[in-house]
Amino acid sequence: MTRLSLMTSPSFVLRGLFLLGLCAFNPLPVVIEPATAAEPPAFTVSARVRALLAQMTLEEKIGQLNLQAGDKDRIGPFISKETEQAISEGRVGGILNVYGAEHTHELQRIATTQSRLKIPLLIGLDVVHGYRTIFPVPIGQAASFNPDLITRAERVAAIEATSAGINWTFGPVLDLGRDPRWGRMVETAGESPWYAAVLAEARIKGLQGERLQSSDALLACAKHFAGNGATEGGREYTASDLSLRALREAELQPFERAVKAELGCIMPAFNAVDGVPGILNQRLLQTVLRDEWHFKGLVVTDHGAIAELPRHGVAEDMSDASIGALTAGVDMDMASQAYSGSLKSAVEAGRIDVARLDAAVLRVLAAKEELGLFDNPFARSLASREQEKLDHKDHKALAVTLAGESLVLLKNENALLPLPPKGRLALIGPFATDRDNLMGPWEANGQHAKVVSIKDGFARVAPHLQLLLAQPDKEGLYGKKQIAAALQAARVADKIVLVLGEKAIDSGEASSRAFPGLLPDQMALLKAIKTLNRPFTVVLIGGRPFVEPELYTLPSAIVHAWFPGSEGGEAVARLLTGLSEPVGHMPVSVPRSVGQIPITHDKRPTGRPSLGPPEAFMSGYIDEHTTPLYPFGYGLSYTRFTYGAPVVIGASDPASRFYKIQVKVRNTGPRQGVALVQLYTRQRVAPLSQPEKQLRGFARIALQAGEEKDVLISVAREDLDFWLNDTQKAKGSGWFDIMTGPDAGETQTTRLFIPVTP
Length: 758
Ligand code: BGC
Fold this sequence. Notes:
This protein has about 750 residues and is α/β, with parallel strands linked by helices. Beta-D-glucopyranose binds near residues 170 and 223.
């Protein structure tokens, strides 16, 4: 058939008419102009701060931009003589990694009595998921789908950290966790940009409290801006190639929400996006952050990031690097000592705009004023308050609750769980009695000796269970001897629980893994236990979904426990014995194999979709499925729920800022439980193909056995907009699929028509 005859064939004409029809419903999108957001109230620069700036020498200004460790090699109550001297000479604006009321008091005393201008210090620490009470790691918290509880946990973290003199945290982490190879997935809220934005706001509310002036408020520093989780191959600190449009669609969402929530500080990412490392990215730091979002807070580098610029190949030397970072919009230099070493000569040589330097200094001073440090630098360093706030029983109770809600029941054949509270339980595996790993990779001032291990948890909540332990060797490994002992314990036990996973140091920063599965000795242990031909449970400890097919097929029951925190052992024991219900859901998809990565619920459609096993000439692999092993949002309960189809309520109101979707949920199982109804959307036809599913809402609902309720979920109108290109956003319009269900893999669909509104 010639091209001409194709174009005049009846089917072509019909198709043309059909397309014209579609266009009638989907005319060219209405574009929303960016930079229209109202300016969020952030730091104001007071007359006091301006007067202070006017008195400062060039050296003192540069000093304010210098953030250095209290002691080069240690974190905690340590201050070196060099640091003391630098503070007294006005060469330091902030200190990191010193904690404790007494030591932070001393730091502030030196700054406010010995330095010429008596300027107090910012004192920062990575309070990523708790200070003394360590809550589950962020990805575990995200599994709770309980933003209010997360706000309360962050409030506790702030109360504890501020009682020890900390006024600034390098958190929350707002990167997306879309690649299980990347170690820092553990610090994220998982793969959904929309959900990460919801939690960004929840965390900032908790950390910063109602007013930064309060002595229990922490200045939050969202990181790592931006695209840090999108590094190639999941390799830490590696570059990624993303257009600004792609960043806006995903990575920038939580940061934008954080700025709206009055975030006080941002930390650019180490890695390069489109060839530009975070601290040199003027488009992000200036155009997006300052011009569009009107961010007024502080920008601080990541640890030693300026010093790394020459290695990226984008700066000749430290001086070049410092000038580049300051010019791009970086206010403070963390740990490179680059600004202190080179800005003076750069100013003197006319290589730096002094107004830019002054603006950075003003922001540091304004942050200090906002925190109330000029009025009372010691408010957060009271030993009596520290003693009262640390190890508080209410904080521990909250940690047990949040850890409990973070646990995800992935499998429970023949209702193996919950376990009976009596009898003999073989408790086996490297993390069964462990106190060194349950807190995860960021433990701030958590105390290993006080961690509630899983064994301790059982002893607390099920004292009538007789525990039969089979410990690993001194290295935490199971060799032949240890496996034989484990088999022996399992044989005589009534029930068997294996606690497997990865160590805290094998997750987190600089712990990317090409094989994100279990170590070979743990697989050998698992297979050996399977030879007994008895049902057993696996509890997984770790900061990522493990990609290890047999791990999921051999056991009868599996609970993903993440790093559950300092009180985590109690939460795990409560869940396994049925004292609490499983309510957690996976905030990430679990791949079947490493080759599927990245695999997320919000992939774009293809012209050749393949859902099931490999099919010829369809999108996917010839040797692997295209679906994940467990979809995003997956999580079982000890009861069962049935979900009705979604019903749109009041769809026709074009003025509405929200659409309301109703879903009937019924508890058809034997006991009470909490269902999580998830809502996904997709614009069916748009100028840019839209992801197949994007999480846009959820609701948790508690139901007694046999009970049925209607659940209402609101979808914000503006959440349906999408980025057309780097600078233009389009209003969502036309037909949308509204999909609801227990996870991204099992949804029912209705349609919603959204008329074009100017
Ligand atoms: C990490 C940051 C952290 C900083 C200070 C860096 O290596 O990337 O997330 O805040 O160290 O500890």
